[in-house]
Amino acid sequence: MHLAYPAVLAALLFCTGLYGVLARRNAILVLMSVELMLNAVNLNLVAFDAWLSRAAEDTLHSGQALALFTIAIAAAEIGIGLAIVLAVYRNRGTSDVDRLRDTAEGHDPDDPDSDATGRALPAPAAGEKAEATA
């Protein structure tokens, strides 16, 4: 098999994972997209190892060994990442990345009594009517 086929497939996998990281809001889907990117790297490692071992008459297979290390690191990363996501979901009640960033900055976008900086708006005086802001 020619080297271009697995390289193109790995590039498509990596681009799909990159799109998932940049476009998704759910933290679990972001972790799955990172795993997709790591699998694209593993595919490249194994494909280039097979191609170079045929060209150099080498039997070391270091690319496949590196792929095994990458798989072990990815398994540890997904385990720790999932534990963090579950802990954040338990504390905050959401796994939406945008809402978690807003709460970390001290700004709740759903709170009508706060402005864009997250500070509470002053309460109207006793004799004044509350004006509606557009």
TrEMBL record:
Catalytic reaction annotation: a quinone + NADH + 5 H(+)(in) = a quinol + NAD(+) + 4 H(+)(out)
Membrane topology per the entry is: Multi-pass membrane protein
**Which controlled-vocabulary keywords does the entry list?**
Cell membrane, Membrane, NAD, Oxidoreductase, Quinone, Translocase, Transmembrane, Transmembrane helix, Transport
Annotated EC: 7.1.1.-
Signal sequence, start to end: none
Q: Where are the transmembrane segments?
A: 66-89
Q: Where is this region: Disordered?
A: 98-134
The protein's location, in the record's own words, is: Cell membrane; Membrane
Q: Determine if Translocase is one of this entry's keywords.
A: yes
Q: Which InterPro entries match?
A: NADH_UbQ_OxRdtase_chain4L/K (IPR001133), NUOK/Mnh_C1-like (IPR039428)
GO MF entry, a single one: oxidoreductase activity
| Record field: compositional bias (Basic and acidic residues) | 98-109
Q: Which is a Pfam family this sequence falls into?
A: Oxidored_q2
> Keyword Translocase, does the record have it?
yes
Q: Which HAMAP family match?
A: NDH1_NuoK
> Briefly, what is this protein's role?
NDH-1 shuttles electrons from NADH, via FMN and iron-sulfur (Fe-S) centers, to quinones in the respiratory chain. The immediate electron acceptor for the enzyme in this species is believed to be a menaquinone. Couples the redox reaction to proton translocation (for every two electrons transferred, four hydrogen ions are translocated across the cytoplasmic membrane), and thus conserves the redox energy in a proton gradient.
Quaternary structure, per UniProt, is: NDH-1 is composed of 14 different subunits. Subunits NuoA, H, J, K, L, M, N constitute the membrane sector of the complex.
What does the similarity note say?
Belongs to the complex I subunit 4L family.
Q: What is this protein called?
A: NADH-quinone oxidoreductase subunit K
Which organism encodes this protein?
Streptomyces griseoincarnatus
